[in-house]
Design a protein that fits this description.
It catalyses: holo-[ACP] + malonyl-CoA = malonyl-[ACP] + CoA. Keywords: Acyltransferase, Transferase. Belongs to the fabD family. The chain is an alpha/beta fold and 286 residues long. 48% of the residues lie in helices and 14% in strands. The strands form 2 sheets. It has a 4-stranded antiparallel sheet.
């Protein structure tokens, strides 16, 4: 089964899209009109502005779209299912016909603005270590820290208040229980500190025409394929809920061997997916 996986925030790089923008001028011009600024200039400059979620999200979404268009043109792949990590899920929904490009970019623009306006004054870090131990530490010792991304057997991402993240990071470092990697993000995404953003997303989505996907898209919120009756709810709740990436890979692997094609400026999801699959293979070895 061929799975296409779109990366989200964290995959952005200065200079991304530079070879694609000249070849997809109509798409880029349309994006610049919707956004009100030059994506080419934003991506070329990089720096702090590209890490602000209201700019990161549109930039990553458009570059992902161009990378996927290029992949289709060059390789002619035919995916069986699509997934996306956080923001990348909107790329998957666009690629499967749920939203056209302008509708999807308008949604991404709104999503970035809502999340920027309600940033929760928090922080996020990636924790590399044994997942079960890390989950125990978060659930038993920190009331101000939440699992934002359940990525693999060896990595989770947590979000929370700056003080809570600092306490947890110091404790895990002293215990040598995890490698702590601060993330260059502008808020504590995918956790209850973003409460209210889901309501605003829900209201925005009420005005959107969401079509049936032409191939399945597995939701971050549920780790199950999107259905028309829950699409708006799951897409809105995603921004305040854990990205269930490990469960998503487990769900997909139940259908047989996976071949994964990541769509990203740099490979951020492939190592996580390989870690998930490796641990699953080990668990069934005699």
């Amino acid at each position: 089964m061929l799975v296409v996986a779109f990366a989200g925030q964290g995959s952005q790089r200065a200079g991304m899209g530079s070879t694609l923008f000249p070849r997809y001028r109509d798409v880029v011009n349309c994006a610049n009109r919707i956004l009100g600024y030059s994506l080419q200039d934003l991506c070329a400059a990089g720096g702090p502005r590209l890490t602000r979620t209201e700019f990161t999200q549109p930039a990553v979404f458009v570059v992902n779209k161009l990378l996927y268009e290029d992949t289709l043109a060059n390789d002619g792949i035919v995916p069986d299912v699509m997934i996306g990590h956080s923001l990348g899920e909107i790329n998957a929904l666009h690629a499967t016909g749920v939203l056209d490009f302008e509708e999807a970019l308008q949604l991404v623009k709104a999503r970035g603005a809502f999340m920027a306006e309600h940033n929760g004054n928090g922080a996020m870090v990636a924790l590399v270590g044994e997942r079960d131990q890390l989950l125990h530490e978060v659930s038993t010792n920190e009331s101000e820290v939440y699992v934002a991304n359940d990525n693999s057997p060896r990595q989770i991402v947590v979000a929370g208040t700056k003080d809570g993240i600092k306490r947890l990071s110091q404790r895990l470092s002293l215990q040598q229980a995890a490698t702590v990697i601060p993330l260059a993000v502008s808020g504590p995404f995918h956790c209850p500190l973003m409460a209210g953003v889901d309501d605003r997303m829900g209201e925005y989505l009420e005005g959107c025409l969401l079509r049936e996907p032409c191939i399945p898209v597995v939701s971050n919120y549920s780790a199950q394929p999107y259905r028309s009756d829950v699409m708006r709810t799951w897409l809105a709740k995603q921004v305040v809920s854990t990205v269930r990436w490990l469960e998503t890979i487990q769900y997909l692997s139940g259908s047989g061997p996976l071949a994964v094609r990541e769509i990203a400026t740099s490979p951020v999801l492939t190592p996580l997916i390989e870690d998930c699959l490796k641990r699953m293979r080990e668990s069934v070895m005699p």
